Amino acid sequence: MSQARAFIPDGYTQDCLINELPGIHEVVRFKFRPVLPEPIRALMHSYFDKSAKQQGDIVNQTLIRQLVEWDLRDHESESVALTVENLQRIKKPLKDRLFNIVTCYEAGDEAESAKVEEQGDALDFDKILSGEADSSVKFSLQEQDAKN
Question: How much is the pTM?
């Protein structure tokens, strides 16, 4: 269940996750402070009329100010410091997702463990597997199968 709220209190920090994009990047967990609507309008005003360097600066400066931490690692499994220089070295699909999430254009992804937990809470596997399941549990199982 989402804990998202429309109101952004001062100092609010949000936990987030971006799932792996196979062949592009690993799962990334991070904390960020959402950008408020008026600054987003100011950032995006004439964004597409700006040069590629200016657009990159907008993205990098927004991310460096709004990201609180991340778990990004390099090829030797060492932590990657959150710096503008390192932001310039991450793959574009990940950088675009980070920017869209901190500016509230997109939500982060749901952890796979949360999806499994939600499905597991709805079923009594001991009862189902023992053959003692009543019709309501069987119906619930059929609903789960229909969703998948």
Answer: 0.74
